Amino acid sequence: MANSRYEYVKAFEQPDIILPNTWIVVRIDGRGFHKLSARYEFKKPNDLRALDLMNAAAVEVLKDLPDLVIAYGVSDEYSFVFHPSCDLFERRGAKLVTTIVSTFTAHYIFLWGKFFPDMPLQSPYLPSFDGRAVVYPTTKNLRDYMSWRQVDCHINNLYNTTFWYMVQEGKMSNTDAEQELKGTVSSDKNEILFKRFGINYNNEKEIYKKGSVVFRQYQLEETKTGPESKVPQAQGEEESTAQEKISKTQQEKIRKQRRKAQVVVEHVDIIKDEFWERRPWILSGKPGKLPKGA
Amino acid sequence: MANSRYEYVKAFEQPDIILPNTWIVVRIDGRGFHKLSARYEFKKPNDLRALDLMNAAAVEVLKDLPDLVIAYGVSDEYSFVFHPSCDLFERRGAKLVTTIVSTFTAHYIFLWGKFFPDMPLQSPYLPSFDGRAVVYPTTKNLRDYMSWRQVDCHINNLYNTTFWYMVQEGKMSNTDAEQELKGTVSSDKNEILFKRFGINYNNEKEIYKKGSVVFRQYQLEETKTGPESKVPQAQGEEESTAQEKISKTQQEKIRKQRRKAQVVVEHVDIIKDEFWERRPWILSGKPGKLPKGA
Amino acid sequence: MANSRYEYVKAFEQPDIILPNTWIVVRIDGRGFHKLSARYEFKKPNDLRALDLMNAAAVEVLKDLPDLVIAYGVSDEYSFVFHPSCDLFERRGAKLVTTIVSTFTAHYIFLWGKFFPDMPLQSPYLPSFDGRAVVYPTTKNLRDYMSWRQVDCHINNLYNTTFWYMVQEGKMSNTDAEQELKGTVSSDKNEILFKRFGINYNNEKEIYKKGSVVFRQYQLEETKTGPESKVPQAQGEEESTAQEKISKTQQEKIRKQRRKAQVVVEHVDIIKDEFWERRPWILSGKPGKLPKGA
Amino acid sequence: MANSRYEYVKAFEQPDIILPNTWIVVRIDGRGFHKLSARYEFKKPNDLRALDLMNAAAVEVLKDLPDLVIAYGVSDEYSFVFHPSCDLFERRGAKLVTTIVSTFTAHYIFLWGKFFPDMPLQSPYLPSFDGRAVVYPTTKNLRDYMSWRQVDCHINNLYNTTFWYMVQEGKMSNTDAEQELKGTVSSDKNEILFKRFGINYNNEKEIYKKGSVVFRQYQLEETKTGPESKVPQAQGEEESTAQEKISKTQQEKIRKQRRKAQVVVEHVDIIKDEFWERRPWILSGKPGKLPKGA
């Protein structure tokens, strides 16, 4: 039973190599998490256990894939970022995306019991995620993408916080709350929270307001100030030729170095320059110095 | 904090709609299963628990996605097939592939303990899968793809069975066994098995020799014979216009009908016509009759 | 001055191989022909010289590229069709499309003076064309594409013929004619033509009503009638495996055979089966018999 | 005769929007110019008429498409460059490529008689060109692409010049000349030219040694020197957000401004920074000042 007469079907596979020297963002989203969060009784507007579980799974993905330089999560979505110099899986799009989706899912399911000890998963209602890759040519575009997600987090969280206070504490119907919030701006919502419920939105948990930023921890740089301050550019934009020549061996060496760094989760502003200036290894793609005593 | 200045980044998402009226095969593969099978002590050449776990996860995927018409699994790979008339997720490639990869992974992890009760998963060494979509324009191409995988299963299994008998029973070193098998044809391997170990390869388990075929069960058709026998064509090839007009409502109705059918796993020949002739609903994409008493 | 430090830029070229075993339609359209037809005083609603020039250029394209099996032209657009078995330029999309666009343009410019002897081209106002490839998986889809273009030809020509009679003979303003035709159906337009201008639309030139079909001429088959009549399928759908194995040498031989056939232009119905039944070489991709005495 | 039953075929067209904020290079190549140059007796190693014709056609393409910022030509190839901020044809790849190929071909055919007055084109042996788009994310990548083409020009021209002197003046056979040149470096070829034929390669025509650079002419900037000198970055890399918001109206205004500038052909070094520093409008995408008295 020779296979040669069927092997022609291999020619139907189409290549999907992602353009070199570009930022690759793989964004994953929970499938049907609206229903799922009801089934497993997630708390509204934020369920800390669910967010911690998302973050724990994301940390494992970063540990597993040293080529990732940063990730950002909010609600049931997570964005994972590969550096322009990344050549993992020869930059095959489907391979990069499915590897992240599958690794994330595996850890999410595996860790569920740790975060929801009293709420076991019931088959077939298992959490799952879809994903896609988006490509950004410049560091500015990448930063704008990250800012977009964090602003979205803020806007949604302010809305949801207000809405659920109105419903849970204010005993309004969903429809009435929705109706009243229609057309309001941030200051209106802040005022509702403060006047009616005595809530200062600024005192809400950072994880709810800022989302979660996951990255490798090295020694922070001093914050530079003044006009000479400069956000580091992607390696690729300054010296891509050199970088193109990084050998497989060197790539593997860099991966090993990265594995030594601790992967941390922080809930901080990533819109302003400071975050990126103090952590130049993220945008440069060059490992920093391990913190003393680490 | 308005988001409008960042929203332009959405324009970088590129569409990936799969060509209409074509068969879509999503093939997933275990990531690093060579190491993984060593860590969790999978039996050689075949570990029935591992195969049953693959099949159980595949069955859940077919239950979850009624648009799938058939799947075929061997070793740590599985191919899932969408019909040409499928419009799930508007045929967005990444969405189709990641949904299957994630759903499969979720059930694989969730079911692990049932199939490996004495061998718990150890983080971070969790099983995961990558995947890709391949598109086939005609039913013949699709059948040739399926045949290709099943012939591959046969070739690999005959080799592995012989190799591991030589090593495990014959006490040969891996290198010696490999060396002796180099250049042998099927009959040589059959003879080694029979002469040295008294093994008739034909009596090996069908699941090892044929792999696993997963599909919805309806009433089988009589086997036709003679020249008028005809393998059903894909709906799309005969009446695609009509099919193009299937409304969303009708699609949803067909999905509901499909959910009623039982999803079964069989270890049978899918190279010859008979399998397809007796189960015309697979290639036609039209639900068959539910078996009596079901 | 070594080039090696720059050669990495070659890696940015992305493959664009068209899916095997599918029909490839390359459609080209005149760029800004509205203005151009005014500048060179094309007659309304149809300029026979302009159509004959389009057809002459299309004939040269078919002569130059024996892999093309048929082409269909109407107004300033032309669709060129490659057979599923075509492997010209390894099916690279951009190469196929640009070769057709450039060859067509070259002949169009070169032949201009023959068809417009009193109206020389004036630089920079030269005719040019853009193009794109569309892929069809089945013969039915391809035939529906061809039908779509021919129905479009009919609809536009009936409208334009009526409109220009109303303007040129009926002395109506463009706006008034447009207004009156809004919402009319075919029979209304036929009636306007007949009642007001004594024109029987059926007697209009076939080239205007049907467009132009370009193909290689072999001996016609007898028209089959009755239920056993069958439109030939694409080779690929019946025996693609075999076809996949056509060697480069055989491909070149087939090309030579095809070059011997005469390329003809006809203005006939391509919606009904008859056209295709009598010329089975078009859909089968196998050269027919040269006509006697040719 | 309604068209609705066929219109579904439109859904088979697949989008091919090029990634925003990237450099687009459309490279065209003469089809079969080896044979063609023999048929029309092009001079070896360089035919000035043929190069001038290529340049004249390229100038017309830049005049026709103000979105192009620069082009570079050598032998029978030409590279046309769109700025990252370009939104012509919504950045549809096939449309951009075919428009350039067709416009170039049209002018090439139209202008032939001017450059080859004694050698009329003979149908069907007409010149034609194929083309493709390549995308570069950063200005450095784009500059490296341009350098790659110019170094290639140098390497090929030195080889060809030496080879043809050996054959035409030295009366060597093609094979012998080829054999002797195998493995030689630049200095060897320079020496052959000088010692045997008294030719100083440096005195060869710049158009042969450097190729042809086509761009819009504005007032040159002073050459900056010293460490503060800086090659301008693409607009997109510094302020892409703003640029994203350039309205259609503004785009059209910029196009009009560009049309006023003269398109020039120069044979100069584009590898070093100086060319780009003195003509900042090319990389910035912002029109410069028209030269005084222009």
TrEMBL record, chains A, B, C, D:
InterPro entries linked to this entry: Thg1_C_dom, tRNAHis_GuaTrfase_cat, tRNAHis_GuaTrfase_Thg1, tRNAHis_GuaTrfase_Thg1_sf
This entry's Enzyme Commission designation comes to: 2.7.7.79
**Annotated protein name in UniProt:** tRNA(His) guanylyltransferase
Instruction: Name any Gene Ontology BP term.
Output: tRNA modification
Coiled-coil region(s): none
Taxon lineage: Eukaryota, Fungi, Dikarya, Ascomycota, Pezizomycotina
Q: Where does Mg(2+) 1 bind?
A: D29, G30, D76
Record-stated family? Belongs to the tRNA(His) guanylyltransferase family.
Q: Give the binding site residues for Mg(2+) 2.
A: D29, D76
Q: Where is the composition biased (Basic and acidic residues)?
A: 245-254
- GO MF, one annotated term: tRNA guanylyltransferase activity
Outline the extent of the Thg1 C-terminal domain: 140-272
Which chemical reaction does it catalyze?
A: a 5'-end ribonucleotide-tRNA(His) + GTP + ATP + H2O = a 5'-end phospho-guanosine-ribonucleotide-tRNA(His) + AMP + 2 diphosphate + H(+)
Obligatory cofactor(s) = Mg(2+)
* UniProt remark on cofactor binding: Binds 2 magnesium ions per subunit.
